[in-house]
Amino acid sequence: MKKKFFKEITKFFAVMLIFFLLTAPVIILFGPFANLKRTVVGAILKSKHPQYITWLFSQDELNKIVGNNDSPQEQELLKFTANTSESLKLHTIESARYKGFVLEIPDPKRIQIATSDQLGEKGETTSNIAIDNKAVAAINAGGFYDDNGTGTGRKPYGFIIHNKEFLLGQDYLPEETNEFVGFNQEGNLLVGKYSKRDLQQIGAQEGISFGPPLILNGKKMITNGDGGWGIGPRTAIGQRRDGTILFLVIDGRQPPYSLGATLSDVQDVLYEEGAYTAANLDGGSSSTLYFNGSVINKPADLLGERMIPTAFIVK
């Protein structure tokens, strides 16, 4: 009798498990749980296969789910005189959920893109990239695929530009667009979707592919929800109207020290710091701030700094 009872119970739970596995995606994506939907959709959008979610939702619907501004704006370029006399300034930020650091760089023309020595084959740590390039400061920059599962940061994607030269993306069609975060020769921080032709026409000097934009023309771009990527370590970059660049790194995945931040949190921090333009950079285990010979934050990777392909450095 007991054997039969346990057999029936086991069968019941097996059926329920199969039912849950089959219906869970539908419930998450089309059910009433807005925060869960936002997190899952955001994770898919930043994955290697974002096209899967576009089969289910239009771009307008995706913008509403993850909280993106659904009205693309033309970026206003700033006019400023770079401050070459002021030194870099570092300060901490803190909330009940996260701890992080902001580095102020008064002269935006000191910032360049630097890459690992074996770009496309193997990454390097942020600090090693900085040391190799004799930089005083650096943060991790663009996105990459680890398609071999080794965590070596070997395969960047999108555009990489250094000294106006396309190190990656030179084979793109002229009109093919990708997310871009970088600088023109005047020191303006450029954020948003650009084609190769666009970047050449506006004189893009340095930059990589990542996003999304967080602040454009002094206005917050995430107007609904938390940005859709959940809570985690974050790296971002911003620029004040006077040209000053802000490197922001927030630690995460390390309770009770720091759980992490949402994209909306990052946007709010940079807005309060006076950013007129800002964009998200690669986060998670990659988030690293190097300054004056040391790694300032606490990277989330158990092995320490993660291997990455690109960094924004301060010469």
UniProtKB/TrEMBL annotation:
KW Acyltransferase (keyword) present: no
Pfam families, alphabetized: NAGPA (PF09992)
Sequence ranges assigned to domain Phosphodiester glycosidase in this UniProt record: 133-314
Transmembrane segments: 12-34
Entry coiled-coil feature ranges: none
This protein's record includes keyword DNA-binding: no
Keywords of the record: Membrane, Transmembrane, Transmembrane helix
InterPro entries, sorted: NAGPA (IPR018711)
Protein name (record): Exopolysaccharide biosynthesis protein
Species this chain originates from: Pectinatus haikarae
Organism lineage: Bacteria, Bacillati, Bacillota, Negativicutes, Selenomonadales
